[in-house]
Design a protein that fits this description.
By secondary structure, the chain is α/β, with parallel strands linked by helices. 35% of the residues lie in helices and 14% in strands. It has 16 helices and 11 strands. Strands 1-3-2-4-6-5-10-11-9-7-8 form an 11-stranded mixed β-sheet, sandwiched between helices.
Length: 455
């Protein structure tokens, strides 16, 4: 028997006494065992430890527990007390003394942390192939990448092992895996979800992200983890912009669509534009060039130095512990000069002014989440260029201080999913979630056979 793990479905089963918390747990652990070869997990909590979380909950769901009995996964660069944090590098592993702020809020809301998931080492990559714990393949076709760096977090949800998961997103790690596994991926405004207890990649840009089966679940989870955290120097208090009843969307013309795009992805993107128009959204072509130019700065500019600073002591003592491609990306940052950083900050500010002008014409911008999806062997043979291709529509987002939501938007003829991303100015997170609920088509949730319909 397959179990629909979406939040409303589970809560209905608990309420109607069709399912107990222990039965849910047995189902999840059995499903995890059956998918062992997918390299989704780095650590799965023991049944004994999981029962301790369940025993703290009352017999029935109350308003105090909006995530009562909901199983979730945690990317293994985010702390959970009692479980080592590896960041995809065994030699780096440490035992945290405190659970990450965002994780604790979910546990306090009644959610059950099942375990820690695989990732591209030190959250450096968009592919899901850069882990000593094994490659996590795509949920629909194991010959293809799952996307990264939050590969295990995405696949754990898509394959119906947990209801939702936490990832991180600096360059697209919460959006690319969502698109490649037919999930909703929330990339919040920087600082709205606390990074306390998260191994930094680029501390000034990092975001904790959410993978969910549908927009309703994403909206609920987001509402619970967004909270000002005094202990995180990058934490910000949320604002509440007005939510419109009619929308204008910026869309990309042919000149600004990636030249390496999969033709079927382009067809599906054009179809998405038509679908949005059918839902009453006015679509306006915008100039995407400033966004593309800003995206180049993330790895070609000084921000890669933050990745070096984040693990400086470790990499200088243990350079051999890093995946070769990860070391090739991070290690050269030690030679960057202050003058390069200053020039890049000036360039970014100029590009942000131009990008903001384009975004100011519309309520949000609609674009493909990725231009193509690659086979695992293609990425292994050409790891830098293909990974760079995947960042074409994602790398600018945190540099320009925007928020985004990736949503499913259809399937290719071979059955692989396609997704689009809606993005807007900072603090418009709730607006994008509302829009996605209104616009997204009823589609299968992840790689399961259950279909979402808005509540």
């Amino acid at each position: 028997m397959k179990l629909d793990l979406s939040i409303t479905s589970l809560h209905n089963k608990y309420r109607d006494k069709e399912l107990s918390l222990q039965e849910m747990l047995d189902y999840v652990l059995n499903a995890i065992e059956q998918t062992h070869h997918y390299n989704i997990w780095i650590t799965v909590l023991s049944r004994k430890k999981l029962l301790e979380f369940i025993e703290k909950l009352p017999d029935q769901k109350t308003d105090q527990y909006p995530l009562y009995g909901i199983p979730f996964a945690i990317k293994d660069n985010i702390d959970l007390v009692g479980v080592p944090t590896t960041a995809g590098c065994e030699k780096y592993a440490y035992h945290p003394e405190k659970t990450a702020y965002a994780v604790q809020r979910l546990i306090d809301a009644g959610a059950i942390p099942i375990g820690k998931t695989n990732l591209d080492q030190f959250a450096t990559g968009l592919v899901g192939t850069r882990s000593p714990y094994g490659i996590t393949p795509n949920s629909f076709d194991p010959d293809y990448i799952a996307g990264g760096s939050s590969s295990g977090s995405a696949v754990s949800v898509a394959r119906g092992l947990v209801s939702f998961s936490l990832g991180t997103d600096t360059a697209g790690s919460g959006r690319i895996p969502a698109a490649f596994n037919n999930l909703v991926g929330v990339k919040p405004t920087r600082g709205l979800i606390s990074n306390s207890g998260v191994v930094p990649a680029c501390r000034s840009l990092d975001c904790v992200s959410i993978f969910a089966l549908n927009p309703d679940d994403a909206e609920l989870i987001n509402s619970l983890v967004v909270n000002f955290d005094q202990s995180d120097p990058y934490s910000r208090k949320k604002r509440a912009p007005k939510i419109n009843t009619t929308f204008r969307a910026g869309v990309l013309g042919e000149a600004h669509l990636a030249e390496f795009s999969d033709p079927e992805f382009l067809e599906l993107y054009y179809q998405s534009i038509e679908d949005f128009k059918d839902n009453g959204v006015e679509c306006i072509e915008i100039d995407f060039l400033p966004f593309i130019e800003a995206a180049k700065l993330l790895y070609e500019g000084p921000w890669v130095a933050e990745r070096y600073v984040a693990i400086r002591n470790f990499i200088e003592k243990n350079p051999e512990a890093l995946f070769p491609v990860t070391r090739d990306i991070i290690e050269p940052a030690s030679t960057l000069k202050t003058i390069d950083a200053v020039e890049s900050y000036y360039q970014l500010q100029a590009l942000k002014r131009l990008a903001d002008q384009q975004l100011g014409q519309v309520d949000f911008i609609l674009m493909p989440t990725a231009a193509a999806i690659y086979r695992i062997n293609e990425v292994i043979n050409d790891p830098i260029r293909l990974n760079s291709n995947l960042g074409y529509y994602t790398n600018f987002m945190n540099l320009l201080d925007y928020c985004a939501i990736a949503i499913p938007a259809g399937f290719k003829k071979d059955g692989l999913p396609f997704g689009v991303t809606l993005f807007a100015d900072r603090f418009h997170d709730e607006c994008l979630l509302k829009i996605s609920k209104k616009i997204m088509k009823p589609l299968p949730m992840g790689a399961t056979h259950f279909t979402w319909k808005s509540i």
